[in-house]
User: What shape does this take?
Amino acid sequence: MKFCSNCGEPVVRRVPPGDSLPRDICDACGSIHYVNPKLVLGTIPVWEEGGQARLLLCRRAIEPRYGYWTLPAGFMENGESTGEAAARETLEEAGANIELESVFSMISVPYVNQVHVFYRARLLDLEFKPGVESLEVALFEESKLPWKDIAFRTVGVTLKHWFADHARGAFGFHAEDIK
Amino acid sequence: MKFCSNCGEPVVRRVPPGDSLPRDICDACGSIHYVNPKLVLGTIPVWEEGGQARLLLCRRAIEPRYGYWTLPAGFMENGESTGEAAARETLEEAGANIELESVFSMISVPYVNQVHVFYRARLLDLEFKPGVESLEVALFEESKLPWKDIAFRTVGVTLKHWFADHARGAFGFHAEDIK
Assistant: This one.
């Protein structure tokens, strides 16, 4: 931030009285501008048939990580709940009709100031199709999953927990950090 | 937002190409300014002695909700993990030394663009003392809790879940929305 979003004057970076961290401060209008981590919400959409589980992944049509595979996910918007954000991103990126299940993972990524949260989800049909941010959308069983071409570490960690929990027949909640 | 934080020129609010929501856009430098929900992180610090559990609450010395009781919590900062934010807020507001346990609740509050997350925590000693944002800090057993003077609904919901889970002897993870 270089200029005050309230009055347009240049800001300076220093620790405000009573605070412990430097902020962007406007000495013209007195505004203090706080910047906080962003939430990324997504789902793990599953299609179970004949005793086999397959998960829905999207191949990214945008940077970062163009061409790599990811779970449907994106930035939570103001006015949404976490579940609404997860379902919206799943529809936008994968055109997928889902029923949301439990919150499955919450992974902090402090070096990019993000927290990624994934819900378990049940695909309601096979009518999915790529949105504008996806090159393709496909179902993968565990042995066919493109493990070397996963876009983000939070997605890889979430997928590993999902298959482990699925194998033992009980889904937990997984909170961890990637540093 | 009235002015571009990148170049200081006035912004206009409209839907960018390929987007579905209005954003603050700078036609001078091309910046699009996104605003997203904020994470509030806190803990439920417990002191167990003689078979009785007491929880640590802080009486707020700041607005909003000056004088009301809350769990120690506050805005997550850039560069932190969720657990680091929860522990820092507990130390700042209650001077409390804790050991973090599991993530206990995640509550969306879309009408204020926030998500509140609380960790279970074990008090390591009784050396707690109010920080600058607290009037006082005290331990409460369930029957003595100031239920009518709780500052925020996310805190009340979290406390109710905690005592219910404690009574049944098993702590879960609780995700819900307050609308």
About this structure: The two ends of chain A are 25 Å apart (CA to CA). Chain A has two helices and eleven strands.
